[in-house]
Amino acid sequence: MEQQKMRKLESRKAEQKPMLKRVLCNYLPVSDLELAAKWYTEIFGLELKRRDPGGAILVLGDGQWLFLLETTEKRTANFVTSQWDGNEKTYEMFSLTFEVENIVELHKKLRDSGVEVEPLMDLDSCGLQFKFKDPDGNKFNVWQDPATA
């Protein structure tokens, strides 16, 4: 009888889908909306869908939206943790990882544009990655699927 209940419970769990489907959009704090929108469109070629006093909407290659919102005080989306990459000290963590198709080209473009960029790293089965900061100090990770490299 107990085994029957367990099988029923396991069967129900297997049929359930996660209630959160995907990330639709992300919000980034910026100190100057006009300058930030220009930077993201020029550096990354993102489409500026809308720009008004309420913020700017940028469109990534897969259609996901990236909102830029001007902050009332200097702030970034970064946070400090000691739970990353075996780091026992404090680590300034990025809030987003962007997937790209040509990471070497993007890394070079960012360096050539004077963007604060960390070295390109080959993490074997995890693929190529690097980190960069936007003009407001928001830190991001960039990744390329090793299957497409």
UniProtKB/TrEMBL annotation:
Transmembrane segments: none annotated. It comes from the Bacteria. PROSITE patterns: VOC (PS51819). CDD domains: VOC. Residues 22-145 form the VOC domain. InterPro entries: Glyas_Bleomycin-R_OHBP_Dase, Glyas_Fos-R_dOase_dom, VOC_core. Coiled coil: none annotated. This is VOC domain-containing protein. It comes from Paenibacillus woosongensis.
